[in-house]
Amino acid sequence: MDLTQGTAEEKNRRAKKMMLWFGIVSLIMGFAGWTSAYIVSSKREDWISDLELPQAFFISTAIIILSSITYFVAKKAVGRNDQKLGTIFLLVTLALGISFIIFQFKGFSQMLENGYYFTGPTSNIKMSYVFLIAAVHIVHLVAGLISLLVVLVQQLRGKYMPGDMLGMELGATFWHFLDFLWVYLILFMYFVK
């Protein structure tokens, strides 16, 4: 397929999708770097191998998986021209996204209560990585929430219709990526001791 062919609208759609994928690939590279450093650092003598991740991280994992399902349902509903159901599920996705962040911070609090700190004399390199990886993911999830808010506002304005849902498609793709990224990260931190 020749990417230079097609109408201006088709080229615009392809360009927007390509930019999203460039962004996603760059995020993958960043997190691959941090997880690689995590693996290399795990060979250090001061590495804590018996550390348990906070329970709140696992609850937040269930929440973000559920939010991906609700975003999927919202997109399908709008694709069937069920605008009301689409809006409801976008709102549920927003609430779940906010809940995810709340539980992430509860996880940070649990780590602090257990005496694990990001920096300082009582910190540990493993805990610093756990804090860093989770915090950077939260920053990207905030970007996902902003994207979701834009999609929600556009949905409320009646912008999306079957066959004309580019913004929602892009937002959903980014959201699902953030979901899969967190599932990978939590499994990585759980299994790489």
TrEMBL record:
Pfam families the record matches: COX3
Transmembrane segments: 20-41, 53-73, 85-108, 128-153, 174-192
Statement: the UniProt record of this protein carries the keyword Membrane: yes
GO MF, one example: cytochrome-c oxidase activity
Organism encoding this protein: Flagellimonas hadalis
PANTHER family named among the record's database cross-references: CYTOCHROME C OXIDASE, CYTOCHROME C OXIDASE SUBUNIT III
GO cellular component, one term: plasma membrane
Protein name in UniProt: Heme-copper oxidase subunit III
Compartments (UniProt record): Cell membrane; Membrane
A Gene Ontology biological process term: aerobic electron transport chain
